[in-house]
Amino acid sequence: MPSQSTETTQGLITQILNFQHISNTSKLWLLLGVGILISAIFVYFLEKSKHPKVSNVPIKNLRLTPSQVSFLLQGPLKPENSLAATFLDWNRKGWIQENTLTESGFLLKEQPGPITKSEEYLIDFLQKHSKGRNIDFSLIGKSQKNQGDEFYSDLNQWYYLLKEELIERNLLYPSHRNHGNTLVYGLLSIAFYFIGFIGIWLKIQAALLTLVGATIYFFFALKTYGKLPTTGQSVYTYLQPLRKGETRTFSGDQNLNSENLRLYAIALGSYKKMSSNLSETEKSLEDEFINSFIENTKKTFIGSVSFQII
After folding, report:
1. 3-state DSSP: the chain helix, strand, coil percent, rounded to 5?
2. Cα torsion through 117, 123, 125, 126, rounded to 10
């Protein structure tokens, strides 16, 4: 014959397994909370599976310009760095007449190419505010001061074209943000918070699980809002070390030689942090020119305003 204590224990286990120790209302919130947490775990692994491996980065076929790299990694920040890196890139490509690049301008060749839409627009913009192919920063600076908003509006168009080029390559979403998943996770978060607070108002402790799940979905919404398309994520992850001036990651990449890395770092504003094989004298002279060139570019194109693309 089973003892009374054994029967009591078995009865308690049976009650727990059948949720007989809590009210029907609490059961509902408990099951809902557990279900939300299980779904959150599923969503976490689903989003994690979308994150590409750095080894699969299609960098070989991208051939990104310095300004495209800058826009992808940090948006339309520090336009003077992007512009300066672009002009230096043109000089490297041979689009600028030899020995004409100075801190105050340069002389463009007649038919540079192959050329992107953003580069073509920028060349037309420069010629419009200067002496044709003889790009004079002093003249452009006068246009910037005299035209004001009109000048900046035209310059903004260069950034719009950069964005369109990145969208065409599936590196950015059309809105620059992933509104689809963000909207879904955001609405679920709001709904779960609403249900959870009703449970707390009814003094049901199990509703805390629903609030925990709602918070997790809220963070999912924040995380996916700033997420790039899969290809964009891989390129972003691959090039991210350049923002800190780190170059060891790219030592085995033949598509990113030291000159490309230097131009990317200039566009990102991190070129000072990069290690260099130049002698101290050469390095000092190079840094002095780049610093002056960027500063003059800022004075010419940006002036004293806070420049930001809309």
Report:
1. 70, 5, 30
2. 160
DSSP string across 149-196: HHHHHHHHHHHHHHHHHHHHTTSS-TTSS-HHHHHHHHHHHHHHHHHH
What digits encode the pLDDT tens for the residues 229-283? 777 777 888 888 888 877 666 766 666 777 888 888 899 988 877 755 444 544 5
What's 139-160 look like in SS3?
A: HHHHHHHHHCHHHHHHHHHHHH
Write out the H or E segment, with its range, that includes residue 107. Answer: strand 105-107
The reply to whether the predicted model has a pTM over 0.85 is no
Q: Which residue has the tokens 């978060």?
A: 189
Does the CA dihedral 241-242-246-252 come out positive or negative? positive
**Environment class of 157 (CB within 10 Å of its CB; exposed 0-12, middle 13-18, buried 19+):** middle
Count each helix (H run) and each strand (E run) in the chain, helices first. Answer: 12, 2
